[in-house]
Amino acid sequence: QVQLVESGGGLVQAGGSLRLSCAASGRTFSSVGMGWFRQAPGKERNFVAAIIWSGGRTRYADSVKGRFTISRDNAKNTVYLQMNSLKPEDTAVYYCAAERALYGSVVATTVTEYDYWGQGTQVTVSS
After folding, report:
1. From the DSSP assignment, how many helices (H) and strands (E) are in the chain?
2. What's the pLDDT tens digit per position in 16-27?
């Protein structure tokens, strides 16, 4: 069982930066892949970025490549999402998620591949 708590969201002007954090509890954090998703009002939850258990492989949605960076600190049981050059279309509730499978070598990019979810943190980018 993994419990996830996101933080770091807020209101920022276009072009600004935010860093989201996701603190995990549970003994298996360092063994599972982690992902960030986002959901705008009235829209589906979409993939943003993900990282495998070791941190050695990552993937990004095309819309955030070159602007967002996912990383993890297994000693702190925390995964991060550094968001730079933010745009109004990045406005959404951001969720972190953890896989159930241990030591996966493939980066998971779909909602159904994740079993544990945080409560979400709001990111609002003003123009």
Report:
1. 0, 11
2. 999 999 999 987
